């Protein structure tokens, strides 16, 4: 049994090495940017955003994803990436729950990503749910203040690094989006201070749900990849 575990461990290292030796995802790919929208308006092919709510949101309603709930809800890079992959599988039994979760933890990248959902295969209920999700996330993106932006620096970097290192299908577009997003915010004092702090003393902290193997391999590699992103952002703040 011990020999089998050792064999599995070394195979995992070899797989990781094949990804981590690859260059950081190419930024020359087509850019993904958060669209400029007005309150309550989202331009997404196949459906329209819901009318602006006429009543005050109910605090206990899970669909009410405020900036505070967004910051307070912890989610690992692995789980975040998995949600975005399942979101494109509209026929999956987990699709509805996934969209509801993204309504709480999604950001500007999520808005662009969800435009890839094949809406012609959705029920009316599914279209309404997706539209509501996009509207909620866009409202949150548009109201993001400097404090929130600074708090989101590390999660965004770790998500990009995780997808990059694991050769996740999101890697190219997510790395490009993340670097572009943080470059656009680097002149904000709190954001820059956070970036400089990460550059000095970044230490990955695996989520409690991570396996021992993920904790040792993935987060060990991230200790180099995340500061690399930061150095590129600070060296070339605008592009």
What would you say about this model in short?
It is built from eleven helices and no strands. With 239 residues, it is mostly helical. α8 (153-165) packs antiparallel against α9 and α9 (171-185) packs across α11.
Averaging pLDDT over every residue, what do you get? 76
- Structural class determined from secondary elements: mainly alpha
Q: Strand percentage, roughly?
A: under 5%
Oligomer: single chain
Order of helices and strands: HHHHHHHHHHH
Estimated helix fraction: 55-70%
Uncertain regions spanning at least 5 consecutive residues: 4-16, 20-67
Task: Give the tally of structural domains.
Answer: 2
Helix/strand layout:
Layout: H1 2-20, H2 67-72, H3 77-87, H4 95-105, H5 108-114, H6 124-142, H7 146-151, H8 153-165, H9 171-185, H10 189-201, H11 212-235
Helix pairs in contact: 1-11, 3-4, 3-8, 4-6, 5-6, 8-9, 8-11, 9-11, 10-11
């Amino acid at each position: 049994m011990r020999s089998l575990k050792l064999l599995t461990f070394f195979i995992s290292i070899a797989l990781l090495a094949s990804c981590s030796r690859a260059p950081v995802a190419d930024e020359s790919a087509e850019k993904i940017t958060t669209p400029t929208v007005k309150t309550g308006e989202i331009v997404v092919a196949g459906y329209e955003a819901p009318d602006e709510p006429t009543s005050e949101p109910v605090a206990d309603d899970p669909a009410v994803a405020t900036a505070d709930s967004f910051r307070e809800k912890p989610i690992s890079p692995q789980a975040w990436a998995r949600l975005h992959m399942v979101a494109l599988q509209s026929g999956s039994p987990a699709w509805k729950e996934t969209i509801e979760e993204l309504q709480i933890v999604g950001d500007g990248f999520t808005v662009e990503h969800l435009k890839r959902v094949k809406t012609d295969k959705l029920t009316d209920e599914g279209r309404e749910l997706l539209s509501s999700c996009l509207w909620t996330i866009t409202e949150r993106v548009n109201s993001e203040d400097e404090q929130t932006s600074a708090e989101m620096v590390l999660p965004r970097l770790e998500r990009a690094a995780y997808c990059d290192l694991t050769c996740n299908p999101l890697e190219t577009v997510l790395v490009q989006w993340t670097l572009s997003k943080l470059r656009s915010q680097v002149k904000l004092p709190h954001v820059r201070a956070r970036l400089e702090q990460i550059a000095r003393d970044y230490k990955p902290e695996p989520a409690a749900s991570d396996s021992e193997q993920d904790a040792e391999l993935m987060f060990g590699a991230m200790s180099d990849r995340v500061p690399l992103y930061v150095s590129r952002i600070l060296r070339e703040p605008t592009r």
